[in-house]
Amino acid sequence: MAARDSALEVLSDGQTAAPLLRVGHLHAVAASAGGENGGKTARTYFGHFEHQSSQRDYPQVCGDIRTGSVRGEDVPFVLGLPLVGGQPFFPHNYTRRDRMLSRLIIHYIGNFARTGDPNIVPTSDEGAEEDEESGEELDEDEWEDYGGGDGGQEGEIDDGNFIAPHWDTYDAINQCYLQIGIRPEQKGHYRGHKMSLWLNLIPQLHRPGGDDVSMRHHHFPEEGPAYYDGN
């Protein structure tokens, strides 16, 4: 089971995660170059959905607990289906936390669709400064008991109100992204070492050597137990 999961993780990284991260990186670089050349500055936002729905279609096998989500599990939350009991496409009994998370995602996406920024749209200069530092406080009735309730941290209850964390822009250096789950959290360098395998090491192995390197440098001996068995 562990070997299977490891193989699937490696293949998923190479076929899905790394290409998506590469696209985001190229978009961020192009947006930065456009702003430096006097063009309209575009912004790139990176998010990772890690919530495990209470009504997921991928049950644990033989008691083997796996964390994280499966590709496509975010779709019902983006569409707001937990808010209507999953009808008409996903008739499931979503929990209160599922509904609260769906509200949070719609909050971000709605703001992004209207303004190009998933965070709150300030109504004054004073509000802009406050919201940039602490995020948007949502109604107590909407966010009560969501996220644990320790208070004082992003993504947790603070004095009865849920504070939606500020979603920072993604750039080629800091590589900030928002981990979207029961406790939303701002992080950086998504799976850095594992993504580096596909985005840096393997592409470098495919590059040709310098002109001063002889082709014989890349040749293996025809026979040698250090390379393969047989004659």
Automatic annotation (TrEMBL):
Keyword Metal-binding: no
Domain of life: Eukaryota
Pfam families to which the protein is assigned, alphabetical: COesterase
TM helices/strands, residue ranges: none
Region (Disordered): 117-154
Residue ranges, compositional bias (Acidic residues): 126-154
Keyword flag Magnesium: no
Keywords: Glycoprotein
Residue ranges of domain Carboxylesterase type B in the record: 4-198
InterPro entries in the record: AB_hydrolase_fold (IPR029058), CarbesteraseB (IPR002018), Neuroligin/BSAL (IPR051093)
Family under the similarity heading: Belongs to the type-B carboxylesterase/lipase family.
PANTHER family registered for this protein in UniProt: NEUROLIGIN (PTHR43903)
Protein's recorded name: Carboxylesterase type B domain-containing protein
Organism this protein belongs to: Ladona fulva (Scarce chaser dragonfly)
